[in-house]
Amino acid sequence: MAEETRLTTSRVTELAAEQEREITTTRIKIGKTIVVPLDSSKLAESVLPHVEALVKEEGIEQVEIILLRVCNAPVILADYPEAIMPLSWEEHVEHEIARHKRAGKRYLAEIERRLKDAGFRVRTEVLLGEPSEEIVKYVNENHCNLIAMATHRSSRFIRWLQGSVTDKVLRRAQSPVYLVRA
To answer: Most buried of the four, 75, 134, 158, 179, by CB within 10 Å?
Structure first.
């Protein structure tokens, strides 16, 4: 049976006070890598204090945090007027994909810097594609030990209707998924 542990680290306590609740976690073995998918939202980032606390319990030097941003492929209009545009269609597509990836890297770089300044081992990955598919593919191909994600408080009907990234990852990933209700 899992033993519940109260987290007392200053950062987690500060964040818990900001959110007016106590953060607790169940003692789990997290392995060597934690993948944290982020979509540039505050909701997704709400998992970070929990990840920090888990890694501190395991030992900062023992665990690598992989911040993962999956960018949807950019929507590019098919009626591209090549005659008046400075780039060919192919160059335009490449330019748009590169722009999306750069934005993802900039976003993750700020979080990576903050975590590294706190002593964590962190690296970032930016992928292009459908988020749930790319997260599962990345985790399975790289044999990651744990996926940590925040989840919405949406109803079963809404999840069924829209299909949530979290639900898809839960069903398809070969690694355990640590969920935080945001």
So the answer is: 134
